[in-house]
Amino acid sequence: MLTNGRLIPATEAPAPATQPSTPIAIDEATEWLETDGLGGYSLGTSARVRTRRYHALLVHAAVPPAERVTLVNGYDAFVETPNGRFALTTQRYAPDVLAPDGVKRIESFACEPWPRWTFALEDGTRVEEELFRVHGTALVVVTWRLLSGPSSVVLTVRPFLSGRDHHALQRENAELQFAASVRGERVDWHTYAALPEISSLANASYTPRSFWYRGFFYAEEAVRGHDALEDLASPGELVFDLAAGPACWIVGTSAALDELQRGAKSAVAALKKLRERETRRRAGFATPLERAADAYVVRRGDGLSLIAGYPWFTDWGRDTFIAMRGLLLATSRFDDARKILVEWSKTTSRGMVPNRFPDRGDVPDYNSVDASLWYCVVVGEYLDLVERGAAKLSRSERAALADAVLAIVDGYARGTRFGIRCDEDGLVTAGARGVQLTWMDAKIGERVITPRRGKPVEIQALWVHALAVADRFTRAHDGLRELAEQSFVKRFWNPTRRALFDVVDVEGEPGVDDPTLRPNQVFALGGLPRTLLDPERARIVLETVERELWTPLGLRTLGPKEPGYRGRCLGDPVSRDEAYHQGTAWPWLAGAFVEAWVRAHGATPTALAAAKRTARERFLAPLQAHLSSAGVGHASEIADGDAPHTPRGAPFQAWSLGELLRLDRLLA
Fold first, then answer.
1. CA 70 to CA 84: how far, in whole Å?
2. Cis peptide before 100, with omega less than 30 degrees from 0?
3. Domain 2-283 CATH assignment equals 2.30.30
4. Rounded CA gap, 61 and 398, in Å?
5. Is 24 exposed, middle or buried (0-12, 13-18, 19+ CB in 10 A)?
6. How many other CB atoms are there within 10 angstroms of residue 430's CB atom?
7. Where does the pLDDT of residue 25 fall: very low under 50, low under 70, confident under 90, or very high at 90 and above?
8. What is the per-residue pLDDT for 361?
9. How far apart are CA 270 and CA 607, in angstroms?
10. What is the pLDDT of residues 344-385, one digit of tens each?
11. Sequence-ordered list of residues with C-beta below 8 angstroms from that of 553, at least 6 positions apart, any chain
12. What is the mean pLDDT of the chain?
């Protein structure tokens, strides 16, 4: 193991460190995210201790936005003054050893406009470190600046390299190459022959001094039941004269650095160019929340798509269409929305758009009943914007959207994959054994945790709205929407529970209904352009949902009094999947619920204004407070259904942030 830059046998490893006295406690550290618009990212914690396999300085999307590989995992940094050597970083090694002790010197952390730390050293020296990702290219910039201190201050940075799929872990091996090519301020490493070359540009001297650092321990991976140990390669050290001026380290793929150096040869010149570029770009967003939304917009082929969440998701159909309503439409990024809708129009197959593009390979998955219907809903909302003159759409683009919507509606009406078809009552039935088609899609092996075969409630609400959008292009389905609406009211009202059934005709059995109290029913009341229930029943359903399902971080996926309720989403993958939709709260569901609540309480202009004020204080404020508790500036994927509703899952989730943005506009 290495500690304080010295390679020592594991038997001599220091005892586990005690909790340092610092404003940033390691076990309470928040996470920060920097993205490049290509699917690549940089991710870490405010305490600078890497707790996930995904925490890395440079993750690169080889085929944007997919095939992500981790190239530079992190680094150790030390400052040397006449009074001693002081660490700025901390790593966690197995079994639970913190070394070196940089975390105790963190004086402050801020995340605007990018991550920034201030360090206070024991001899009075103060250092500021900043880190930002360069949009549109595989580069990350790290700088250090001496705020106060003696006339002699030296900074040493030791990079940790790998070359692995970002989901995987690396162990010491003979294939990794430490050798470097050094040309002035530039250093190139080619760790593995099949991966991109890693390039560094720094106003520093480079000294080859290679080690394997063994036994990094990722605590959050262990908590989640995954392998948590990794070995990383460190090829040498970058040494900066911090007293002479700011230290600049730019690291990325060799192709990205080649492009940068065509316009700026030195590290300092490149830093000036990149800092100005990123400062100007980020200043173009009206609010930090809108800037956070930009993290999910990525390039796919010649078009755009949305990453469902960081760090482990790619672009999913369902998530894309739900999230873009807030991330793009609510923020007036209409051109980006148009490009995404047009790009996805090309993917229709047998009346469906994909639910997921795999991380590797070209064959998308079409295993969703709701993704295609959400696509239709967003097309309808975009057409509304076009008709109001807010957005643009060429004749050919309108034709492409029309073709996609009609293909979807026709496909569902006739029947398509997985038993998806329109029944005689005008409602959509769906289901295939061993396949979960709705958003409640947790599955363990061949066991579907929340089987919803039949006619799920939210699918009918989406189907009615998809038919309404199709009516804007053709009258071929005249009468089907009216039939579906009438059947919905007749079939889903459950007077006994003062709610809606979650699924009717369960497993294809006519008249067999599922009364389980779940949040999916809110889409009949809000989150979509029209309400499918009369005002009295809508208020009754909302009272039940608010009483049983609402939490400060969204709606529970199952009522606490229901059989099988799980109030904590913890443990290994099996345990978490079993709890995923069995009581876990989802922030994105707040959008539909709050919109429905405002509709129900805002029958007149005066009542509407009052309802918005109440909803902002009662429902939106807790969601906004969450923006500083997990992924800084972002909203989490899920939270525990039981108090204190601890955030879980991905700390940066597109549809959670999108619905928060949409609500913020809705309640204005």
1. 34
2. yes
3. no
4. 31
5. buried
6. 24
7. confident
8. 59
9. 56
10. 999 999 999 999 876 665 678 899 999 999 999 999 999 999
11. 585, 587, 590, 622, 623, 626, 636, 639, 645, 647
12. 94
What count of residues does the chain have? 668
CB 313 within 8 A of CB 650: yes
Can you tell me the distance from the alpha carbon of 337 to that of 581, in angstroms, rounded to the nearest whole number? 30
C-alpha 382/C-alpha 396 separation (Å) is: 15
Residues 6+ apart with CB under 8 A from 542: 522, 525, 593, 596, 597, 600
Cα(222)–Cα(229) distance, integer angstroms: 9
CB 167 within 8 A of CB 314: no
At 424, phi and psi to the nearest 5? -65, -25
Instruction: Please provide the distance, in angstroms rounded to a whole number, between the alpha carbons at the two ends of the chain.
Output: 55
pLDDT digits (tens, 9 = 90+) for 582-622: 999 999 999 999 999 999 999 999 999 999 999 999 999 99
Q: With contact defined as beta carbons under 8 Å apart, do 355 and 430 qualify?
A: no
Question: Which of left, alpha, beta for 607 (phi over 0: left; psi -120 to 50: alpha)?
Answer: alpha
CA distances 305 to 295, 358, 458, 634, Å, are 11, 14, 24, 19
Residue 302 binned pLDDT confidence (cut-offs 50, 70, 90): confident
b/e map 294-322, b = 16+ CB within 10 Å: bbbbbbbeebbbbbbbbbbbbbbbbbbbb
| 149-177 as b/e: b if 16+ CB within 10 A | beeebbbbbbbbbbbbebeebbeeeeebb
Q: Where are the domains of the chain?
A: 2-283, 288-666
CATH class for the region spanning 288-666: mainly alpha
Q: Which amino acid is at 488?
A: F
Report pLDDT digits (tens) over 387-420: 999 999 999 999 999 999 999 999 999 999 999 9
* CA 503 vs CA 264, 565, 652: distances in Å: 61, 18, 31
